[in-house]
Amino acid sequence: MKASSSSAPNGELALRVIALDKDTNSNGDIYAGWLMSQMDLAAASMAGRIAKGRTATVSVKQLDFLSPVRVGAEVSCYARMVNIGTSSMHIEVEVWTRDNHQNTPRKVTEGVFVLVAIDDSGRIRAVPAGE
């Protein structure tokens, strides 16, 4: 995945939250780990619908932090299916923010998450056909 300069999000809105003071690093910007966890939730939401059940994140293929996230920003995660294998799903997640009192969104992070469908015992299973 290559960092892009698109002017609109790719994919469907999967999660929207507000970045809070408690989520900051020592520089006062939103902690990258918090942002990555929001992206993982967005990918898992899409994967669960497609797998029609439990999923687990097995890897993050690439993660690019393009710009800091500010406290109070509206953080929107957009998810897009890139590839579905027998049991795995590659989901691209873009994060766009809108700062306080601003109308113009900006892309701040993008990455590809790999999730697998799992059964109730936690074993890998096939993604249902036709998905």
From TrEMBL:
<dbReference type="Pfam" id="PF03061">
    <property type="entry name" value="4HBT"/>
</dbReference>
<comment type="similarity">
    <text>Belongs to the acyl coenzyme A hydrolase family.</text>
</comment>
<dbReference type="GO" id="GO:0005829">
    <property type="term" value="C:cytosol"/>
</dbReference>
<keyword id="KW-0378">Hydrolase</keyword>
<dbReference type="GO" id="GO:0009062">
    <property type="term" value="P:fatty acid catabolic process"/>
</dbReference>
<dbReference type="InterPro" id="IPR033120">
    <property type="entry name" value="HOTDOG_ACOT"/>
</dbReference>
<dbReference type="InterPro" id="IPR029069">
    <property type="entry name" value="HotDog_dom_sf"/>
</dbReference>
<dbReference type="GO" id="GO:0052816">
    <property type="term" value="F:long-chain fatty acyl-CoA hydrolase activity"/>
</dbReference>
<dbReference type="InterPro" id="IPR006683">
    <property type="entry name" value="Thioestr_dom"/>
</dbReference>
<protein>
    <submittedName>
        <fullName>Acyl-CoA hydrolase</fullName>
    </submittedName>
</protein>
<feature type="domain" description="HotDog ACOT-type">
    <location>
        <begin position="9"/>
        <end position="121"/>
    </location>
</feature>
<dbReference type="GO" id="GO:0006637">
    <property type="term" value="P:acyl-CoA metabolic process"/>
</dbReference>
<dbReference type="InterPro" id="IPR040170">
    <property type="entry name" value="Cytosol_ACT"/>
</dbReference>
